[in-house]
What does this fold into?
Amino acid sequence: MDRRKMLGLAGAGAIGAAAAGVAGATLIDGATHPAQAADAGAAIPFYGEHQAGIVTPAQDRLHFVAFDVITDKKAELVELLEKWTHAAARMTQGRDAGSIGAVNGAPEAAPDDTGEALGLPPSGLTLTIGFGPTLFRTADGKDRFGIADRRPAALADLPRFAKDALKPEISGGDICIQACAHDPQVAVHAVRNLARIGFGVVSVRWTQLGFGRTSSTSRGQVTARNLFGFKDGTANLKAEDTQLLKDQLWVQPGDGAEWMTGGSYVVTRKIRMLIETWDRTSLGEQEAIIGRNKGEGAPLGGKGEFDEPQFAAKGADGQPLIAADAHVRLAHPDANEGARLLRRGYNFVDGSDGLGRLDAGLFFIAYQRDPRRQFVPVQTRLARQDSLNEYIRHVSSGLFACPPGIRAADDYWGRALFA
It folds into this structure.
């Protein structure tokens, strides 16, 4: 038995007991995943047709990191991707990042694992990688690795949206890695070790910690709430929506850039919520802005959370029950030519801003087949018309191409791109 798994049995049992009452498993893309958190300490398969961490039922914690590649040598980058893949395969199964481990090496040498996850179970850890536009060609036009002609058309730079207040230092990046787990220490351990392994080849550009998932990615999960107190992601794509996932999530043959077939594109947006202003807003106005009631999460005029919004319905005053600038109306697929996203967002609280106001909000993560036809038109509409804009600020943005899954132990992240 693996040393860490043996040490972690007691912890896994405790976590499993805490999740009692949630049972069963779901067969997703040929691999069995926990339907919700039947065993929050369990391991998620690393190998498969698609990368884990996309349709995987959303875990409770996030550590997202964006790297800049600081070498111009393709061989060094490929070697790092090979090392990262090997370490990721180990860590997602509850093992040390390297074969020597945190405590078994020579005393005079640095260990090949940092050790803070010793004794902890895998905790549903998933690691998902993506490649940003600047990996293919830098902002000054340099093709460092001879892959500029392999940049997918769907990885087009995002436009500047109305009311954007983006900070360049926490936006973009050559490579991203999304670490999700039920234990924050497990997620942080994974990112810390990948950064350690990448020393001299990549540098950390920015990171984001998240807690309290704000979207459900499986029908076995209840809808979560964001920091405004509203249920978020009611109409999200779900892992069980096989045909919708094919149409809206996974890159298909013929989409261009064949190395991306079976992959997906992820958009990240750090959205600061003006918490104090929102908290002084009346309940009725909050519900009108969102277009749903705050308790059940039902669309205004409906009874249940999953009732379809009736956009033509009017109140006694003759006005639409769901306002023209309500968030739910503007984001609905009917208003966006059927475009849908698979969201995996998380709440964040990064302390205060120095003026006694919470630096808090939503770290938005959305996977899709083609951002040009999905995220961009939806966000364009929201940025121009959404009444929620009075209470939020978009301060960070990222776009990355996430390749398909790893099929075997001799494969590595991005092999089809660099081959």
